[in-house]
Amino acid sequence: METNLCVAGFGGQGVMSLGKFLADATCNSTDKNVTFFPSYGAEQRGGTANCFVVISDDDIGAPLGDVMDDLIVMNGPSLAKFLPTLKKGGNLFINSSIVSDQIDRDDVTLVKAPVTELALEMGNAKVLNVIMLGVYVGFTQVIEPAIVWDTIEHKLASKPKLLPLNKQAFEKGLELGKAQRG
Amino acid sequence: MARVFMKGTEAVAEAAVRAGCRFFAGYPITPQNEVPEYLSRRLPEVGGVFVQGESEVASVNMVYGAASAGTRSMTSSSSPGISLKSEGISYCAAARIPMVYANFARGGPGVGSIQPAQQDYLQATKASGNGGFRMPVLAPSTVQEAVDLTVLAFDWADRDRTPVLLLADGVIGTMMEPVVLPEPKTEEEVAAIKASKKSWACIGHELDYAHRAWIQPGNWSTLVMQQVNEDAAAMYEAWKQEAMVEEYQTEDAEIILTAYGISGRIAKSAVNLLRAQGIKAGLVRPITVYPFPDAAYDRIDYSKVKAILDVEMSIPALFVEDVKAAVKGRARIETCLCSGGNIMSREAVISAAKKIMEG
Amino acid sequence: MNKIYTRTKTIQEDKVSGFCPGCMHSTVIKLIGEVLEELNVVDKAACVLGIGCCGLHMDYMAYDNTTAPHGRACAVATGMKRSNPDSLVFTYQGDGDFASIGLAESMSAANRGENITVIFINNGIYGMTGGQMAPTTLVGMKASTAPKGRDPKEHGYPMHMCEILNQLTAPYYLERTSCNNPANVNKTKAAIKKAFQNQLDGKGFSMVEIVTGCPTNWGLDALRSLDFIEEKMLPEFPLGVIRDRSKEEA
C-alpha cells in the first residue's frame, strides 16, 4: 500500500508545513516508510510552492510519484498544473475560498473546504494550512488524528500561545473532512 | 535508537558531527545550503569549528589545513562548486590528507539548473582534479544510507589517508525521510582519533629534522614521486575488494536494471512493480561507484538475461560507461535517461523495461 | 674564545637550499628560524608554504610544514590554526601567490582577523616560473610577459598590499621591511618576532611584507640588486609600520 500526496499553492500558504506535519507524524508514530520532498521556485518570496508526501508499507522509490492518489490545492494556478497528475478515483481537496469548484474531471472525488475564509474568521490567516491538514486527515484517515496533533503540538512547543488557535483550526478541519466522507 | 524525520543535507551534517567531524568550511550554493547552515549552529556545540569560506576554493583549502592538523574535516557543495574544489581535492589526494566532501549534485554543465541531476558521474569517479588520483566515491540512495555512508567515509578517509566523496544529488539532499542516527563519538574518542595522527599532522613537533611533519602535495625527486604514485596505485587496486553493491532479485532475472543513487531506489521500486506484472526484473545498484563493483556484473546469469537497462538522471549517459566495462559485451545494454531537473519517472523505467521484454 | 653566533638549528645542515646567489629567501628563513628558537616555539610551529621559490627550502627546514595550492596559503593556515589553536601557524608567500592568485584568500583571512602570521616576500617578479610580471612589478620594469616593461595603460600599477590591508578593520599588525642592508635585516627580524608574539598573545592577523630582490630575474648581480632595491623598490614600497594596534591599546 502506497499513498502519493501532492500539496500545492502559493508561497506563504504553509504548504510545506502541511506536508511536513503529516510526514513527520507518520515517521514518529508508525513503522511505515515516508518521504517528504519540497519543490520551490528560485524566488525567495511569493511564487509557487508544492511538496510531495509518500507513505508506504514498502520501500519508497521516488519521493514524488508519477501519479497522485491525493491532491491538495490551495490556489487556482495549482489546480491547472497538478490536476492532470491525479489518478482516476483520486481525492481532490480544494481551498474553495479561492479555487473554483468547477472541475473539468468527473472521475475524482472532490472535497471542498473554504480554509482562507475560515482562517480569517478564526483571526489568523496563517492557520489555513492546519485547517486543510485536518480536512485531509479527517477525510482520508490515513493516520490517527491524535498523532498528527501531537506532532503539531511538538513543533509549536516554542510558541505555546499559538496552540489553542491551531487546535481549533485542526479540529475544525477534521470535522469538515469527516463530514464529507461517503 | 528511535528514528527521526530529517532532510538529507541535515542528516549528513549531523552524521558527520557524530562521526567526529570537528571542522567544516563551505560556501553557499543550492541545493546544499542546509549543510553549512546546520553546521554553523551544530559544530560550536561540540567544540568544533565552522568557517564560511570566501569561495569554494578557499573552503576546500581550509579543510586541507584543518585535516593537515589532524582534525576530522569536511566540506560540501553542489556541482559547479565541486569543480572549484577540485584544486584542493587533488592536493589532499597527493598529500594523503584524510578529508570528506559531499556533492549534492544538480543539473549541468555550466551553471546548469538548481534541480537534481546525476551529471557529475565522470568527474566524480574518473577525475575530480588533476593528476590521475582516485578516491572512494560513495553513492547513497536513501537518507539513511547517506547517514551510514558519511560515517563510513570518515573511517575510510582516516584509514587510508585519502579524500572520500559522498556523491549524492539534489533529491537525496532536499528530501526528508526517517533515519536512525549513529551514536555520537565521545569527546575522548574524537581526541583519540586526532592523537593517532600526531606523527604526521602539522601540529608542531620537537626540533628534530627526521621527525618533523612534512606534508607534501608533490615531490621534487622523480624517484620519490614515482614511488608515491606506485604506492597510491597499489592502494587503489586493493580497494577493489571493498566495492559495495546492492543486488536485488537478480538470480532468476530476465532483465537487469542498473542504477546508482536516487535512480537506484526508483529502479528498485520499478523492479517490484515489474515483478507484480509477471516480468522477472532484477537490480544491480553500486553503492561505491569507485571502486566499481564489477564482480556483481560477473554474478549475473547472462543465459537468462535479455538486456541490461541503465537508468540514470544524466544526458548523455555517463554511468553506463562503467556498466559497459563491467558487462564486457555479455548482454545488450539499453538506457532510460532524464535530465534537466525532472526526477526519474518510475513509469518511464517500467515502460522502457517492458519495451525490451516485448521487443 | 666565546661563541657569539651559531646557525639556527631549524635549518638542517646537510641539506642544500637551491636558492640563487643574492636571493634573500635564505636570509628571511634564517631570521624566522632564529625567532622561533628565541621564542622557544619550534615545537608549536607549522609553516604553510606558498608555491614558487617560497617552497624551495621545504626540504631543509626542521619544523612542520606543508605546501598550499598557489595562492591558498591563508585559507590553509585558517583551517590549520582554527582546528589547532595552540600551534603557531604562519604562511610564507611570494607576491604572485599572496597578491595575485591568492588575493581573495589573503584579503579574507585578514578581514576575518585570523590569528595567523603572514610572511610576505615582495620582490616584484615571479621567480621560479621565470620572471613574469607580478602585481608588484614596478612601472617600466621588464618582465618575461611584459617585454617592453610594465605599462600602466595596459597593466595598471604596482599593488601595495600593506596599504590595501590597512583599509580593513581587523588586521592587528602590518609592517613593511627589507633585507637590503644589515640594519634592515635586524628590523625585519624584530618585525617577525613581533608578528609571532602577536599570534601567541591571541591578537589576530599580523603581516610582515619584506621587500627583497631577485637578481636572477631582474638580470642584475647580487650587489647591484641591493642598489635596485634601495633606488627603485623602496621609493615605491616605503618601509615602516603601517598598522600596530598594540600602540593604540597602550
The two chains with the largest interface, and their residue counts, are:
B-C, 43 and 39 residues
The largest beta-sheet of chain A arranges its strands as 2-3-1-4-5-6
**Low-pLDDT segments of chain C:** none
Mean pLDDT of chain A: 93
Q: Which structural class fits the helix and strand makeup of chain C?
A: alpha/beta
Shape verdict of chain C = globular
State the name of the first-level CATH class of chain A: Alpha Beta
Q: Helix share of residues of chain A?
A: 25-40%
Q: Give me the number of helical elements of chain A.
A: 6
Q: How many β-strand stretches of chain C?
A: 7
Q: Which percent band covers the strand fraction of chain A? A: 25-35%
CATH superfamily of chain A: Pyruvate-ferredoxin oxidoreductase, PFOR, domain III
Provide the spatial order of strands within the biggest beta sheet of chain C. 2-1-3-4-6-5-7
Characterize the largest beta sheet of chain A: strand count, sense, and whether it forms a barrel: 6 strands, mixed
Query: CATH topology of chain A, what is it called?
Result: Pyruvate-ferredoxin Oxidoreductase, domain 3
| Strand proportion of chain C | 15-25%
Q: How would you name the oligomeric state of the polypeptide chains in this document?
A: heterotrimer
Structural class of chain A: alpha/beta
Helix share bin of chain C = 25-40%
Could you characterize what this model shows?
The complex is a heterotrimer of chains A (182), B (359) and C (250). Chain A has 182 residues and is an alpha/beta fold. Chain A is built from 6 helices and 6 strands; from the N terminus they run βαβββαββαααα. In chain A, strands 2-3-1-4-5-6 form a 6-stranded mixed sheet, sandwiched between helices. In chain A, helix 2 links the parallel strand 4 and strand 5. Chain B folds into 2 domains: 192 residues, Rossmann fold, CATH 3.40.50; 115 residues, 3-Layer(aba) Sandwich (Rossmann fold). In chain B, the strands form 3 sheets. Chain B has a 7-stranded mixed sheet, with helices on both faces. In chain B, strands 10-12-11-14-15 form a 5-stranded mixed sheet, sandwiched between helices. In chain B, strands 1-8 form a two-stranded antiparallel ribbon. Chain C is α/β, with parallel strands linked by helices. Chain C is built from 10 helices and 7 strands. A 7-stranded mixed sheet of chain C has the order 2-1-3-4-6-5-7, with helices on both faces. Chains in contact: A-B, B-C. Chains B and C meet through helix 3, helix 4 and strand 9 of B and strand 1, strand 2, helix 2 and helix 4 of C. Strand 9 of chain B pairs parallel with strand 2 of chain C, so a sheet runs across the interface.
